[in-house]
Amino acid sequence: xxxxxTPTKKTPxxxxxxxxxxxxxxxxxxxxxxxxxxxxxxxxxxxxLISPRKLRLMAxxxxxxxxxxxxxxxxxTNSLSARVLVKSIQSAINDAKSNHGLQxxxxxxxxxxxxxxQKIKRMDKxxxxxxxxxxxxxxxxRLEIILTGQK
Length: 151
Fold this sequence. Notes:
Distance between the termini: 86 Å
Mean pLDDT: 82
Helix content: 25-40%
Strand content: 25-35%
Low-confidence stretches: 20-26
Oligomer: single chain
Number of domains: 1
CATH architecture: Alpha-Beta Complex
Strand order of the largest sheet: 1-3-2
Number of helices: 3
Shape: rod-shaped
Structural class: alpha+beta
Largest sheet: 3 strands, antiparallel
């Protein structure tokens, strides 16, 4: 007669796990879904009828402030350069909000640059006959404002 093997039950063996020594180092977890994205917006006005020196003096005094604070300071300054900068900064802020979707409170000045634009020269003998040859020079400015902010 053929012998058949009967299945035998194996008893489970309990394993003894010894804890390993692990030096715990806590690393900050970055949440990739809440990432702040900085976006630059550029405002350019290439032809302003004011001398660059006058405009540069006012622009350098406000470049360290944020644009909203700069607007309030400029509104109480009685000069042509302040009035030009108020219009330009307001236009740059509105452009950043509407076209790029930036938050108004997060805006900062990246650069404010005032360069020399075109010059209009004309002759007038009553304005200096020897050294300036009677030349009247009307200086123009180029203004470039770059704002950065968060979406």
